[in-house]
Amino acid sequence: MAISKVYTGAIIGLDPILVTCEVNIEKRGFPSFNLVGLPSKEVDESKLRIRSALINSNFDFPEHKITVNLAPANIPKKGSLYDLPIAVAILKATGQISADLNTKLFMGELSLDGSIRAVPGSIVLSDLHKKGIKYLYLPKENDMESLLITTMFVKPVGTLKELIRHLEGIEFIYNKKPQKLKSNLEFDILLDDIQEQEHAKRALIIAAAGGHNLALSGPPGTGKSMLAKAMQSILPPLTEQEQREVLKIRSVVDLVTKDVLKRPFRSPHHTISKVGLIGGGSNIKPGEITLAHRGILFMDEFNEYPRSIIESLRQPLEDRKITISRASG
């Protein structure tokens, strides 16, 4: 009987949870591969990806009774980021690697040939440095996010074989150095491009300067939507603290792009659902209100929104924060 432990993470809302991937291999009984710890369907399907990735990377897959526990067991585990830590834990339990994994965190989806695919949430999980984690191993495809992590030593890996050779000291993977992104604030519409409309432009400037809400009313074709889009160009660049907040949100929904320094501009259609606007769902995700954090939430054709949607805006407008309460947490 052999047991190994590898660290990974889970995301509840915007909060990171340290997850311990425990693997136990018994040579008694029929060969099997079982996952416990509230795994979702995509986590349960990882068994086939892991087996193929290990074999195609020239590692031995144990034909014994394998039990994988994702602790704490009371938190649902969703997503494909658990492929890599489970594979590493199996190799550790079978003695194919001997490296010390106590301060390392792994995340990534395995392809059948052993390559590692991108997964969302690395910026959120980087907050687990508070739990003693020093190294974060993530896919090379998460290159954009790895440049923005300052709390851990980030090591991007492309394949499972490359990772194991590094852990065994055969190859060296350099730490990804964090970089300050250069401001490249280009906008489709500038306020100076709009002719006339002086009163409306003054209202936009006052609202942008004071962080106020703004209601634009008038007949169709008078440029209300164009004015709202131009407001993004007169807002100041995000501060470092604001960048961190926006990056965490975008990382969870996999929206980290090169225009990360721009303040968000979200324009949901009036047929959006209540969950789509305020967030929630069985797997809690941020809604349009949260995605517009530190930016602009533009609700065109406001009178077309259902009453329930409009009523749900009351608390965020008063408290300037959105609170979602669910039985599952």
Automatic annotation (TrEMBL):
Q: Which residues does the UniProt record annotate as the domain Magnesium chelatase ChlI-like catalytic? A: 191-328
Task: Print the keywords alphabetically.
Answer: ATP-binding, Nucleotide-binding
Domain of life of the native organism: Bacteria
**One function term, GO molecular function aspect:** DNA binding
What's the name of the protein?
ATP-binding protein
Give the species this sequence originates from. Answer: candidate division WWE3 bacterium
